[in-house]
Hints:
Blueprint: H1 2-12, H2 18-29, E1 34-38, E2 44-49, H3 57-64, E3 71-74, H4 82-86, E4 96-100, E5 120-124, E6 148-152, H5 158-165, E7 172-176, H6 182-185, E8 196-200, H7 209-215, E9 223-226, H8 233-236, E10 247-249, H9 257-266, E11 271-273, H10 279-289
Parallel strand pairs: 2-3, 3-4, 4-5, 5-6, 6-7, 7-8, 8-9, 9-10, 10-11
Antiparallel strand pairs: 1-2
Amino acid sequence: xxxxxxxxxxxxxxxxxxxxxxxxxxxxxxxxxxxxxxxxxxxxxxxxxxxxxxxxxxxxxxxxxxxxxxxxxxxxxxxxxxxxxxxxxxxxxxxxxxxxxxxxxxxxxxxxxxxxxxxxxxxxxxxxxxxxxxxxxxxxxxxxxxxxxxxxxxxxxxxxxxxxxxxxxxxxxxxxxxxxxxxxxxxxxxxxxxxxxxxxxxxxxxxxxxxxxxxxxxxxxxxxxxxxxxxxxxxxxxxxxxxxxxxxxxxxxxxxxxxxxxxxxxxxxxxxxxxxxxxxxxxxxxxxxxxxxx
Length: 294
């Protein structure tokens, strides 16, 4: 029995060569300007690349070999296709991910399902306009610690919002400069643990008062941030139904002084933060909200 137990422990323990292998991989990654962070034991725990457009499949294979990796940040037109994403599929310790300029598809996100320790992930400028909507988040429903997701400057749609709502542990959702609409916000009614949300429709009519009515059906919300749109008391009044709301941010959003006063009176214990829109931003909103649709 003792021999069998010892054999199991040895099988599960990291090999002595792991730190040496990580160092060797880090040396090979230097030609793509990849910075690798190590812990005291010599295990690679962080990868940061400011010029990730330099990465090749061989570089992704090297990153995928760093089994103790906890943080992965790839900026500047990252060539992360479905094929390259498959090379990163076996990173069981990965907790935090930031990716800019990738071109993987919703289907390709299945390769992220092996990131069992994932807690937070953000996509900046996902460039696959034909095959990425955010619906691929549904592949990650089984991740036990995945609590925070953000997506900006991307073709993220209402299908992505529905998939985000299906994540059972989601607490923080940040979606800005994307294609999701009020209809997508309504999908969040199923997000039982959601604590904070940020919606920024880039001065379009995609997010309106209707989204606030939908958010009122998420009683766990503590922080709501709705920026770059126009809101009125017709929508703002629904936020008074949120029993746990602590902070509301309305930066660069067109709200009348009268409606803002009503809001603050109705929510005396809630911090209301607001950076008023500029004259140019007000003009953009007027062009989109006031002009008749053709």
